[in-house]
Amino acid sequence: MQTPALDLDTVRSHFPGLSRGWTLFDNAGGSQILRGAVDRMTEFLFEKNVQIGGSYEISLAAAEALRDARAAAATLMNASRPEEIVFGPSTTVLLQNLARAMRSQLRPGDEVIVTMSDHESNIGPWVSLQEFGIVLKFWPLNHDSLSLELDDLAPLMTDRTKLVAVTHVSNILGQVNPVAEIARFVHDRGARICVDAVAYAPHRAIDVQAWDVDYYVFSLYKTYGPHYAVMYGKHEHLLELDTLYHYFYGKDKVPGKLEPGNPSYECAYSTLAIRDYFAGLGGAAASPRAALEAGFTAITAQEDALVDRLLSYLTARNDCRVFGATKNVDSKRIPTVAFRFDGRDSGALAKAMDAHKIAIRHGDFHSRRLVEDLGQMGDGGLLRVSMVHYNTLDEVDRLCAALDSILRKAA
Fold first, then answer.
1. pLDDT score of 3
2. At what angle do helices 57-77 and 35-47 cross, to 10 degrees?
C-alpha cells in the first residue's frame, strides 16, 4: 500500500488552535489539541459522566468508554492487551508512581541506572529511591557523538542492576535512541528498562512489543490530546507492582491499583480520537494498526522536510551551534532542534520572536542535567524550535527570515 502524502490544509483543519495567527514552534512543550479529542471529551462529559462500577445503563457506558480508551492506547503502542495501559495526570506523575510501586521489589544495594540526557521526569523519581538504600548510577552522554553508547553502559551494569531508565528521544538533542537494541542489552544482563517517550510519541509509531520494553510512558498533551499521560507496562510486571490505591485493591487488580482516585475518564476517552486521527492519515489499510503505521510514515516524510529546511539554515551560519545531529540520517532526527548563537542571549532572542508572532522557547526544558553537562546554562540557555507534522515549510522560512532580521538588528 502506498502511503498518501499529507494534505496540510486538511491536517491543519483538525487543530483549531492553529487559526490564531501564530506560528507555533513550541510543540515539544505542548502540541495543539485535535478537535476530535475535544469532541470525545465533550461526548463523555455530556453523555457518560458518572462513576464506573454501577449496574445502571450510564455507568455501564462509562465503563465501556474507559475500556475503549485502554484499547485505543494499546493500539497506539501496540501493546498485547488493554490491561497493560495505565492512565495518569502526566508523565512525571506516572513515573513517580512507578518508582513508588516498585519499592518492595528493591533491596538496599540494588542499582538503578539513569541517563544524563533524559528529562528530569525519568531521573528524579529514581533519584528519590536513594533514601531507601538504592544505588543510583548515571549513564553518561558521549560528548563527541552527543549520543548514548552501550560501551559506556556496560561497565555500569552488575548483577545488582534492576532497572535502566532511558529516553527514546532527548527533548534537546532530537536523536532517536535505539531502544530495541538497548532493551536487548539490558535484558541480557538481567535488568528491566523504562523508556520516557514524551519526545518520540508525536513523531513516530510506537511498538512496545517489537522493542520488548518493560515500561513506556508519554504525554497525551504533547501528542495532540489533553493534559494527560499514558504508561505501558508488561502485564506480568504490573502484577508485581505494589498497589497505590486503597488496601483492598490487591496486586492482581491491574491497572486500577496504579490509578489512585481513578483516571480522568474524559481525558482517557480522548485517546480514541488520537488513534483515529493517526489511522486516518494512513488511508485505507487492513487494520487500524496498519493504518496508524502508514499515517506515521506520512508524518515522517513531512517532518523530514521540516527539519532538513531548518538545519540547512542553521548550519549555513558561522555564528550558530546546533546541539545534536546536524544531518537527518534515515529519519532518525526528529524536528526538535536546540541551538544557540555566539555571544547572544537566548532569552532575548526568543522574546524578540514574539513580535513576529512566532512561538519558540529558551532555557533547559526540564533537561537541566543535560544542559549543565553541556555547559550551556548561561545567557538564557538554549533556543529550541520544536516542530510537528502540521507545521509547514513556509513557517520554517518565516522563522529563518525573522532570525535574520533580529540578529542583524542586535549586531
1. 56
2. 160
